[in-house]
């Protein structure tokens, strides 16, 4: 089968592929993705709980896989510490930190201090969207840790998707996993994880835009709290 391409794939092709993969588990989806795309696929990882699960699964399928982290330069120290632990645990994985074109100081000079408060969409565009655009332009496809239960905006995601935002093919192996299953896997395999998860931070982004979440609330309620923003734009 010819390699899938955003420009040429049809709705029927995507439907057929997802029907064929419907009863597969996450590691089977990854095996399909790497066998189909080879080196032409990258995992864009935020190093959240889902990311840790996917990194471990990916290491079992392709020990030399490329993983990119969007380093906004505004992340928690705990996140950077976790990345170093993951690098040590999986030394053959190619883990890259992708920085924005502007430093935080340069952004402050051009757009004013604390742009994430005055215009969070613009801040995300500069520090996340543009860097990911640049990275994904090198590949035909990318892997994401989206799960259907995370939010209404993610409820209909498929294993294999046409990504109109980045003009790419997006593969999401964990769509059927629950939050409890994510943590069962982490605990069972004794994987490193962000210590902030133990402090009521289920979803962890930049330090300036992430708050802890009260028990029983949506796992993404702490992201861009006190604003109407629910996504950074990567998955819209």
From TrEMBL:
Enzyme class: oxidoreductase
Subcellular location: Cytoplasm
Listed CDD domains: PAPS_reductase
Molecular function per GO: 4 iron, 4 sulfur cluster binding; adenylyl-sulfate reductase (thioredoxin) activity; metal ion binding; phosphoadenylyl-sulfate reductase (thioredoxin) activity
Pathway noted in the entry: Sulfur metabolism; hydrogen sulfide biosynthesis; sulfite from sulfate
GO BP term (any one): cysteine biosynthetic process
EC number: 1.8.4.10
Biological role: Catalyzes the formation of sulfite from adenosine 5'-phosphosulfate (APS) using thioredoxin as an electron donor.
Name the UniProt record assigns to this protein: Adenosine 5'-phosphosulfate reductase
Lineage: Bacteria, Bacillati, Bacillota, Bacilli, Bacillales
């Amino acid at each position: 089968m010819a390699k899938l391409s955003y420009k040429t794939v049809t709705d029927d092709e995507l439907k057929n592929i997802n029907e064929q993969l419907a009863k597969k588990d996450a590691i089977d989806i990854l095996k399909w993705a790497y066998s189909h795309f080879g080196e032409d696929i990258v995992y864009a990882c935020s190093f959240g709980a889902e990311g840790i699960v996917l990194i471990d699964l990916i290491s079992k399928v392709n020990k030399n896989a490329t993983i990119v982290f969007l380093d906004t330069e505004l992340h928690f120290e705990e996140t950077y510490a976790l990345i170093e632990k993951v690098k040590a645990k999986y030394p053959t994985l190619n883990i890259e930190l992708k920085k924005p074109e502007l430093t935080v100081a340069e952004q402050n000079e051009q757009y004013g201090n604390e742009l994430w408060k005055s215009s969070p969409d613009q801040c995300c565009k500069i520090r996340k969207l543009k860097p990911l655009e640049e990275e994904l332009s090198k590949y035909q496809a990318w892997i994401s840790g989206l799960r259907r239960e995370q939010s209404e905006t993610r409820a209909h995601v498929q294993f294999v998707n046409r990504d109109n935002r980045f003009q790419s093919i997006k593969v999401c192996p964990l769509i059927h996993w629950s939050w409890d299953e994510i943590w069962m896997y982490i605990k069972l395999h004794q994987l490193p994880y962000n210590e902030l998860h133990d402090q009521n931070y289920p979803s962890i982004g930049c330090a300036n835009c992430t708050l802890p979440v009260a028990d029983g609330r949506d796992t993404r309620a702490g992201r861009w709290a006190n604003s109407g923003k629910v996504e950074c734009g990567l998955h819209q």
